[in-house]
Amino acid sequence: MELSFIMIKPDGVQRGLVGEIISRFERKGFILKALKFLQIEKSFAEKHYEDLAGKPFFDGLVEYVTSGPVVAMVWCGNGVVLTGRKMLGATKPADSAPGTIRGDFAVDVGRNVIHGSDSVESAQKEIALWFPDGITEWRSSLHSWIYE
Ligand code: RTP
């Protein structure tokens, strides 16, 4: 089943939104597969955001995501990448619909609370980067209550 990498950024952690965000993914019916709390180094942030190197906001972005601890997670479920992005809302909070995480909790694009993989390929790459030792295999007993 599909996996997505979701990261609560330092502002989301500092603002006490970890429980709210995890709860939204749980209530939707996605299954938590991995989670860790850590503060990343500059070189690691540059690797995670390597596709954005050269953008005018790149240095500020790296400074922001390394400024405090983050919550790195892997969530599982049919369509979790696309649906997860919808749950996050648009990159710019001003464009994010109410009801989305960014629409409900963010104002500034440079403090937009959360990251989510934008494709299945990115998810695989990001999960390998953030969880190099792999993730625990388990099957939730909720499965048959969420899927036909
Ligand atoms: P993310 O990777 O964090 O999930 O965000 P995204 O795909 O929605 O957006 P992306 O274009 O990949 O940008 C990554 C993060 O960079 C910051 N950003 N700042 N100041 C700006 O114009 C600007 N544009 C992007 C945001 O934190 C964005 O989430």
Offer a concise description of the structure.
By secondary structure, this protein is an alpha+beta fold.
Q: Could you explain the architecture of this structure?
A:
The protein has 148 residues and is α+β, with helices and mostly antiparallel strands. Helices cover 41% and strands 16% of the residues. It has a 4-stranded antiparallel sheet with strand order 2-3-1-4. Residues 52, 57, 61, 91, 109-110, 112, 115-116, 118 line the site of ribavirin triphosphate. This is Nucleoside diphosphate kinase.
Label the structural class: alpha+beta
Low-confidence stretches: none
How many extended strands?
Answer: 4
**What portion of residues is helical?**
40-55%
Question: Which ligands, by name, code or SMILES, are bound?
Answer: ribavirin triphosphate
Relevant terms:
alpha+beta; 4 strands; 148 residues; ATP-binding
Record the SSE blueprint.
Layout: E1 3-8, H1 10-14, H2 18-28, E2 31-38, H3 42-48, H4 58-65, E3 70-76, H5 80-88, H6 101-105, E4 114-116, H7 120-130, H8 143-146
Antiparallel strand pairs: 1-3, 1-4, 2-3
The site of ribavirin triphosphate has 10 residues, from strand 4.
